[in-house]
Write a structure and sequence with these properties.
Blueprint lengths: L7 H28 L5 H7 L2 E4 L8 E6 L2 E7 L2 H6 L32 E5 L10 E3 L14 E3 L6 E2 L20 E5 L2 E4 L8
Antiparallel strand pairs: 1-9, 2-3, 3-4, 5-6, 6-7, 8-9
Length: about 200
């Protein structure tokens, strides 16, 4: 085949230019696709650590916040509540918190970094209902000798003031303790363990 009249330099230039334009176009097409793999701003916000001020939280009071779509309760326990935790160990399924989902620092009677503050996932470990907080000691319709704690109205599971589950109820384990740490004496951050790991 005769090659008279074919400009080889021009052909190489056009092939190279077309290749470069094609590669740039493929890059522009790939960017939105790769960006779609990243979580949305809303998803990132839902999973982000939550900072909570404890100023104004009186002994015996609880505040609730949302973290990762879950209700987290922060209860400031009184000396009486802390002192009563030992009284019911025999009635509990896992008083030492060995079988429950929690950070290592919560494997103690108070299930807390500081005994005064209970930071707990409020969703029952049976089917996820949110138990009522009933801190008052005394007879209840579901328990004659109630020492205070959490009562799940959905299926009658009971937990003490450290979120430890009673024997003979549907909930299989203690209420979960989320990762958390204290930034200072009056501020905690949910979602970050004391070591900094999530």
């Amino acid at each position: 085949m005769p090659t008279d009249g074919v400009n080889k330099k021009r052909r190489r230039f056009l092939v190279a230019t077309t290749s470069v334009v094609g590669a740039v176009g493929a890059g522009f097409a790939a960017v939105p696709f790769i960006e779609s793999w990243k979580p949305s701003a809303k998803a990132q916000a839902v999973g982000a650590p939550v900072q909570v001020s404890l100023d104004g939280l009186e002994p015996g009071q609880m505040i609730k916040v949302q973290w990762r779509g879950q209700t987290i309760g922060i209860l400031r326990r009184t000396e009486e509540i802390i002192g009563s935790l030992r009284e019911i160990d025999g009635d509990l399924r896992d008083p030492g918190s060995r079988e429950s989902e929690q950070p290592v620092f919560a494997q103690n009677e108070a299930r807390a970094l500081k005994e005064e503050y209970l930071v707990v996932n409020m969703h029952c470990t049976h089917l996820g209902c949110v138990p009522q907080v009933l801190p008052q000691v005394g007879p209840q319709p579901f328990e004659e000798n109630w020492k205070g704690g959490f009562f799940c109205p959905c299926h009658k599971s009971k937990f003490d003031m450290a979120g430890r589950v009673y024997k003979g109820v549907p909930a299989p384990t203690n209420l979960r303790i989320p990762p958390y740490s204290f930034l200072d004496d009056s501020t905690l951050i949910i979602g970050v363990n004391p070591e900094g790991a999530v």
